[in-house]
Amino acid sequence: MSRDRRILILTIGLALAACAAPAASPTPTAPAPPTPTTAPPPSPSPAAQGTQVTIRNFAFQPAELEVEVGTTVEWVNGEDSIPHTVTSGTPGYPAGAFDSGCLRPGDSFRFTFQQPGTYEYFCSIHTRMRSRIIVKPKLGSEAAPSDPSAYPSPTPAPSNYGYDY
Fold it and tell me: In this protein, which residues make up the domain named Blue (type 1) copper (predicted)?
């Protein structure tokens, strides 16, 4: 068996094992992560089309989404035949804002964004899959506070500049 084939088999085995492993217990101060649904993804209404991210061909589509505070975004693993995750942060630096757990084909995950900011996210199984959600204040809402610390940074800046070592 060639070395490349053994690596491929090992990688697939690790991905399946990651989905089968029990989730870690949340800390007492952290909210429990939302549970993925197993129902087939619904057809989005015209109003909801801009709030759905499809996992297709090892990519999040659209690659970047801009929404207002209070918007619920739904990720659907509807077109890949293998599991994925939706994890806030960057590989090696998960931010903890949201984590879907293992999304098997047909599963979906929803998260409502309550704070403005840029939320980087990735698939923890396939770390080259990366994307972002830009959350803007609601139109007509109060002006943004002059103190920048009023909006915590949802994603820490990685020290590896996005490269896996």
Answer: 51-136
